[in-house]
Amino acid sequence: MQRGEGLESQVSFRGKSPVPNGHVLHFYSSERELLDTLSGYIGEGLNGGESTIVIATPEHLRALRYRLENTDADLIRAMFEDRYITLDASVALTGFMVDGLPDEQLFTDMARNLLRRASVFNRRVRAFGEMESLLWTSGNHQAVVRLEHLWENFCRNHEMAVLCGYPKAAFPGVMATGTRAAEAEIRAAPTPSI
Predict the structure, then answer these.
(1) Between the CA of residue 2 and those of 66, 106, 126, what are the distances in Å?
(2) To which H or E segment does residue 87 belong?
(3) I need a surface site. Which of 30, 63, 104, 155 has the fewest CB within 10 A?
(4) Which residues pair with 28 in a beta bridge?
């Protein structure tokens, strides 16, 4: 997992695409901060001709769509061209979780299918996910570690930038020392074999 410099409060890729096979954790303090970051990250991708995949809660999907509809992004066209693909994070999890842990093959199949749709005409792809956040806040820390490793491996082998969002509130007492401590806590959770 990469620690994105300057990601502690906001992600900005103004004027350039994120690393094509990067995987970055973003810790946010408020819903507004998340949506500011997310609408900038996804909006920049859409306006730059990239494809975007958003795996989020229904509330965040609705709020993001509202924000993007009020920008220069042609959201309807992007959806029609599979440049704006959305999934409910809880529903996505049901597609690859087996006995409380992500199944590597099922996850890889889902990620490949999404990437195949999004990368038509060799478009660059950027994605956002909060499946890990849902698992972390539910107490399934082993599943988070495994899923982060699966994303890391997938990004290493495919041209796709992934931003994973976590609320700082999910790490009480740890955030006072910064995002590195939260990342260390994620990594320190017992790791199931992959």
Answers:
(1) 30, 24, 15
(2) strand 84-88
(3) 30
(4) 167
Give the model confidence (pLDDT) of 71-119 as tens digits.
888 899 999 999 999 999 999 999 999 999 999 999 999 999 999 999 9
29 φ/ψ sector (left φ>0, alpha ψ -120 to 50, else beta): alpha
What is the Cα–Cα distance from 84 to 146, expressed in whole angstroms? 26
Q: What is the CATH topology of the domain spanning 18-188?
A: Rossmann fold (3.40.50)
**Are 139 and 186 contacting, i.e. CB atoms less than 8 angstroms apart?**
no
Phi, psi dihedral angles at 12 (to 5 degrees) = -140, 125
- Determine the number of helices (DSSP H) and then strands (DSSP E) in the chain: 8, 8
Q: Where exactly are the structural domains of the chain?
A: 18-188
Partner residues linked to 127 by β-bridges: 53, 162
pTM here is 0.84
> How many Å apart are CA 65 and CA 34, to the nearest integer?
13
